[in-house]
Q: What sequence folds into this?
């Protein structure tokens, strides 16, 4: 009987969803090895998932689409035939809002009658019309000129002008007016304003004070009308008290949106101060704060940077849109952008995404980063190193080399050098090893090279390219460095080199002897491949490198005994009897034991005979 | 049914404020850019609000199939599902003005569809109307199938799964459909169900658990 496990089944679900962190996954997998109950539950869930996904998907044809669409059109065309229960919640709305809705409805039906000439398959949505005036951003110029013609047709109709005349002064009248204006009508107050310009200023002062009216509805409406007036360029200029009043309104959740809309339209430096103050308020959403940051004038750069940092700290790491917009906002300010990227790193932002940002940095920003790396830039050199080491571009390599040479953060610079950045990465390590300078030892460099080699997906290609750029005297040194790499990494690197076309005979011999020393045999297939390559090379260039063939054959023999040797011989197209094989092995041992020149030549000649080639 | 308020973009923070206050807040809150707002779709919504019928048609076409799929999975009955789908878009059209673009249009549409599905199911139960599709036919039989016996078994197994899915409570079923069949992320599932991401996770997990128990070999059908 299976013992019940008390581990939460939710962990298994998250495992199935692939949502566990690596450490949790490993832990759970280890647990699954030993817990039959959880294994059973997991299998059950997997089976369930399969069963569910086997359920046939609904059939969908173009005909279905046409039919359903026609059905929707029919229903929309005859809304009255479908009695719809009036939403109960509407009754709870304040009376004023209800009245406004009714009036709004009336205006729309009037408008509908007016535009009855245009035939459309769908009736107009019974909805709050969106503002006709597009958001003006933070431009200080009013947008009256760009008012579309249709805006005038939407003017709220105050038919009773005499009543309006009476109402033009006095707070209470204005409130009544506000109550009667349907929400969302963008230019609703225009007509009233046109009637008596003389009273406009007084009305504006009333309107400004209404933003803190105890009735939220009135306050919000007044702010919407302020927005209308600002958008239409019908504003005489805000009074000194408006900003403090707005700030007060912004602190209230229900008024924040409307207040912000007014604030973003107000001109002048004082308005910017108020905007930055407002951005700190919890009632202002991140998006609005970002807008403020994005449009901040030069004088407000420090405030902007502070604001962005605050946003970043409060943002969820998963909220990439916000973070990316932060980066975009700062694109033209180098030190701020770099500091921000460093903070992103600290806040656990995705490394991959950061790498993309760093790689995409424009050259002025790169310059600042490089100066900072050298310790004379605006950001901390450790932070600069963190950022630069994320990048996959080779431009950072000289800076890392410099750090290694000077011994400043040499360990971290070495780690940075393990990120593959093309052939330049290999050359850089070779240069460091050759120079023998700095605080790092040769084995540190060798270790770095090993890690680089392992992380590099195009290692062979890069290694070959790097090798081709080295001077002849540097090449042997490089082989020596590669030869120090431990285990399979070292063997792989030597194999890579042996397959490199720019490797001359002498160096190939060195490499093959090193391979023999390492008993490089786990990779028999690779050994055979190299052997075939050697054979081709030998067919083309003559038997000057019998030593390489010999060492490779001997390597094969040492891994697999006679079968290995025979594999190698077959790869070379040779068939030897047992006696000849013995002779070959004897010669090979002598040749690879580095005899004196005369004896080497004698044995080599004998070997060439065995390998069917004349010297 | 009331048209659902658009799913909040930040469910945990809004958990406490329910009722009309939250409706007001949602109606007036400054738009926080949701992760999945499609600018083209926002333009289409704006155009539809200005009364452009083609824009609304484009929106419908974009979401029609997906909505039908969700409704069909939920209700298991094509006729009802098609009716709910059409009604969904009619409601969406009527209340387009209340869509404040804090979530993707598709999320909003799915929210409406799910509410309508729940209403429909409640009515169906009230009228003791049993769906003939409860034992829905599986995939069509094919003549070259290996053996009638195997096919029958497969069909029965599918029907059993389908029936088990129907027995889940509506919210759990919704969560499972959205997550497994529609591959929506938990954020969206939470938004549609009007709950937190953590709760959405729990819903899906609980749905899976109940379903697995239902489909266990020894379980009563």
A:
């Amino acid at each position: 009987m299976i013992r019940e496990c008390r581990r939460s089944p939710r962990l298994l679900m998250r495992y199935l969803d692939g949502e566990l962190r690596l450490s949790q996954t490993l832990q759970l997998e280890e647990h699954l090895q030993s817990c039959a109950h959880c294994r059973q539950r997991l299998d059950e869930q997997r089976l369930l998932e399969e069963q569910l996904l086997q359920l046939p998907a609904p059939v969908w044809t173009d005909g279905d689409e046409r039919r359903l669409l026609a059905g929707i059109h029919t229903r929309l065309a005859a809304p009255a035939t479908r009695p719809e229960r009036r939403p109960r919640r509407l009754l709870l709305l304040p009376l004023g809002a209800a009245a406004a809705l009714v009036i709004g409805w009336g205006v729309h039906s009037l408008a509908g009658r007016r535009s009855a000439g245009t035939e459309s398959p769908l009736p107009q949505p019974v909805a709050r019309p969106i503002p006709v005036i597009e958001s003006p951003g933070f431009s200080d110029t009013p947008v009256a000129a760009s008012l579309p013609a249709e805006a005038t047709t939407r003017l709220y109709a105050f038919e009773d002008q005499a009543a309006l005349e009476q109402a033009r002064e006095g707070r209470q009248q204005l409130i009544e007016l506000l109550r009667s204006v349907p929400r969302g009508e963008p230019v609703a107050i225009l007509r009233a304003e046109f009637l008596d310009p003389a009273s406009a200023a007084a009305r504006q002062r009333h309107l400004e004070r209404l933003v803190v009216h105890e009735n939220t509805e009135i306050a919000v409406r007044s702010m919407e009308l302020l927005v209308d007036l600002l958008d239409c360029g019908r504003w005489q200029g805000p009074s000194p008290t408006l900003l403090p009043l707005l700030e007060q309104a912004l602190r209230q959740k229900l008024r924040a949106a409307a207040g912000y809309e007014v604030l973003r339209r107000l001109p002048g430096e004082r308005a910017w101060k108020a905007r930055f103050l407002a951005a700190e308020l919890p009632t202002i959403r991140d998006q609005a704060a970002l807008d403020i940051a994005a449009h901040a004038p030069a004088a407000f750069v420090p405030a902007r940077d502070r604001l962005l940092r605050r946003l970043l700290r409060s943002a969820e790491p998963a909220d990439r849109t916000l973070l990316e917009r932060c980066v975009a906002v700062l694109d033209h300010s180098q030190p701020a952008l770099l500091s921000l990227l460093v903070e992103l790193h600290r806040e656990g932002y995705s490394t991959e995404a950061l790498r993309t940002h760093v790689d995409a940095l424009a050259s002025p920003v790169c310059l600042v980063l490089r100066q900072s790396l050298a310790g004379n830039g605006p950001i901390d050199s450790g932070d600069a190193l963190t950022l630069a080491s994320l990048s996959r571009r080779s431009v950072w390599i000289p800076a890392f080399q410099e750090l290694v040479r000077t011994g400043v953060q040499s360990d971290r610079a070495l780690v940075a050098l393990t990120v593959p950045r093309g052939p330049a990465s290999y050359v850089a390590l070779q240069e460091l090893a050759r120079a023998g300078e700095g605080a790092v030892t040769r084995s540190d460099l060798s270790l770095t090279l090993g890690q680089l080699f392992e992380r590099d997906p195009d290692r062979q290609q890069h290694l070959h390219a790097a090798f081709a750029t080295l001077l002849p005297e540097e090449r042997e040194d490089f082989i020596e460095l590669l030869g120090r790499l431990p285990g399979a990494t070292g063997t792989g690197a030597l194999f890579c080199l042996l397959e490199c076309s720019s490797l001359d005979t002498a160096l190939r011999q060195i490499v093959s002897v090193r391979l023999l020393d390492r008993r490089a045999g786990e990779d028999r297939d690779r050994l055979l491949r190299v052997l075939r390559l050697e054979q081709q090379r030998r067919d083309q260039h003559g038997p000057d490198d019998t030593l390489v063939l010999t060492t490779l054959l001997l390597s094969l023999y040492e891994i697999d005994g006679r079968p290995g040797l025979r594999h190698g011989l077959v790869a070379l197209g040779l068939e030897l009897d047992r006696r000849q094989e013995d002779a070959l092995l004897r010669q090979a041992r002598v040749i690879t034991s580095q005899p004196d020149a005369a004896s080497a030549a004698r044995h080599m000649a004998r070997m060439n005979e065995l390998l069917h080639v004349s010297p | 049914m009331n048209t659902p308020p658009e799913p909040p973009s930040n469910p945990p923070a809004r958990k406490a404020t329910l009722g009309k206050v939250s409706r007001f807040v949602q109606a007036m809150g400054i738009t926080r850019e949701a992760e999945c707002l499609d600018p083209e779709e926002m333009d289409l919504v704006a155009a539809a609000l200005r009364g452009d019928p083609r824009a609304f048609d484009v929106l419908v076409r974009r979401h029609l199939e997906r909505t039908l799929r969700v409704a069909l999975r939920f209700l298991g009955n094509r006729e009802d599902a098609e009716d709910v789908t059409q009604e969904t878009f009619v409601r969406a059209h009527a209340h387009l003005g209340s869509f404040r673009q804090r979530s993707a249009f598709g999320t909003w549409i799915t929210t409406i569809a799910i509410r309508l599905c729940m209403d429909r199911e409640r009515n169906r139960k009230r009228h003791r109307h049993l769906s003939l599709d409860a034992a829905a036919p599986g995939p069509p039989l094919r003549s070259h199938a290996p053996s009638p016996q195997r096919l029958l078994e497969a069909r029965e197994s599918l029907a059993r799964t389908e029936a088990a899915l129907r027995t889940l409570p509506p919210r759990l079923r919704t969560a499972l459909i959205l997550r497994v069949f529609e591959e929506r992320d938990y954020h969206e599932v939470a938004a549609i169900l009007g709950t937190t991401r953590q709760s959405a996770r729990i819903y899906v997990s609980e749905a899976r658990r109940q379903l697995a128990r239902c489909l266990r070999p020894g379980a009563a059908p």
In short: Residues 53-75 of chain B form the longest helix (23 residues). Residues 8-36, 129-146 of chain B have pLDDT under 50 and may be disordered.
